UniProtKB/TrEMBL annotation:
Source organism: Paenibacillus ottowii
Protein name, UniProt field: Homocysteine S-methyltransferase
Chain positions recorded as Zn(2+) binding sites: 232, 297-298
EC number, UniProt record: 2.1.1.10
Top-level taxonomic group: Bacteria
Record carries keyword Metal-binding: yes
Gene Ontology BP, a term: methylation
Keywords per UniProt: Metal-binding, Methyltransferase, Transferase, Zinc
Class of the enzyme per the UniProt entry, highest EC level: transferase
Length: 315
């Protein structure tokens, strides 16, 4: 069964986790690397497990794995074999599942499971631009065909699915052609579901300039797409984007934006100011606008997820 719908049939909102990389940096890891958090997956997997646990304890109903920038090509460039790369990608699921199961067992022992579902593990599938590590996931200007993008995504998606993930999180997608490639690929894996979330440049358009409404309308016809939405985007754009998507699909809308700063992919630094409202206040507005799966992306922390949980458990 569609794991998103299964939870939403019983609960009004699914709370996602927040940033993985931000927490890893806060714990002292250097992520200034083309592999980003995928580097830590290779070198310090125990740190990733700790971050997953922190988000579960904050109240998250879903952990997103540290596989966003983990690709066969990226690891092979670092000297791993293709088989070693695939096993490392699969370990991102195994780490998150272990963290989830240990957390849920502890919750059972303390009879603290009321008002929340058993958390999901969503395998992050970053865009082709994340592998390039040049910021093109915020432009969508790489010139690949649908078939070429399918070839790129197939090995990682297959590995993540075979590792036993609950759902795929195909995220920060900057162009419709890449979403189409992923939707076509899903048909090769019957019974597998994914959400597809785009990065956006303004209140109406995804990163390469295509309309969010058009993307939602096209994806609405694909049964294995469990939810459609936006991530890694400025919070100020989110209410309008929810409206654009919600008006063209009957699927749940997923949003998990950044904290409000803007990212410079050349210097790999953040600039500007965080949103003036607390993240929890903003998230409540997104819920009222129609979003039903809400969390945080870059720069967010467990405290931000706690703020969402503080009001959402009562809806």
């Amino acid at each position: 069964m569609n794991p998103i719908q299964r939870i939403l049939d019983e609960f009004q909102l699914i709370v996602l986790d927040g940033a993985m990389a931000t927490e890893l940096e806060r714990h002292g890891h250097d992520l200034n690397d083309s592999l980003w958090s995928a580097k830590i997956l290779h070198e310090h997997p125990e740190s990733i497990k700790r971050v997953h646990r922190d988000y579960f304890e904050a109240g998250a109903d879903c952990a997103i794995t540290a596989s966003y920038q983990a690709t066969v090509e990226g690891y092979v460039e670092r000297g791993l074999s293709e088989n070693e790369a695939l096993k490392l990608i699969q370990s991102s699921v195994q780490i998150a599942v272990q963290a989830r199961d240990e957390f849920w067992t502890d919750m059972t022992a303390t009879a603290s499971q009321q008002h929340r579902p058993k958390p999901l593990v969503a395998a992050s599938v970053g865009p082709y631009g994340a592998f390039l590590a040049d910021g093109s996931e915020y432009r969508g200007d790489y010139k690949l065909s649908e078939e070429q993008l399918m070839e790129f995504h197939r090995p990682r998606m297959k590995a993540l699915i075979e590792a036993g993930v609950d759902i795929l999180a195909c995220e920060t997608i900057p162009c419709l052609v890449e979403a189409k490639a992923i939707a076509r690929l899903l048909k090769e894996f019957p019974g597998t579901y994914a959400w597809i979330s785009f990065s956006a440049k303004d209140e109406q358009h995804i990163s390469n300039g295509e309309s969010a409404a058009a993307c939602a309308k096209w994806l609405n016809e694909h049964e294995q797409v469990a939810a459609i939405g936006i991530n890694c985007t400025l919070p100020k754009f989110i209410p309008s984007l929810i409206h654009e998507i919600h008006s063209h699909t009957d699927k749940p809308v997923v949003v998990y934006p950044n904290l409000g700063e803007e990212y410079d992919p050349l210097t790999k630094t953040w600039h500007g100011h965080t949103c003036t409202e607390t993240f929890g206040q903003s998230a409540r507005q997104w819920y009222e606008a129609g979003a039903r799966i809400i969390g945080g992306c870059c720069r967010t922390q467990p405290q931000d997820i706690k703020e969402i949980v503080a009001w959402s458990r009562g809806v």
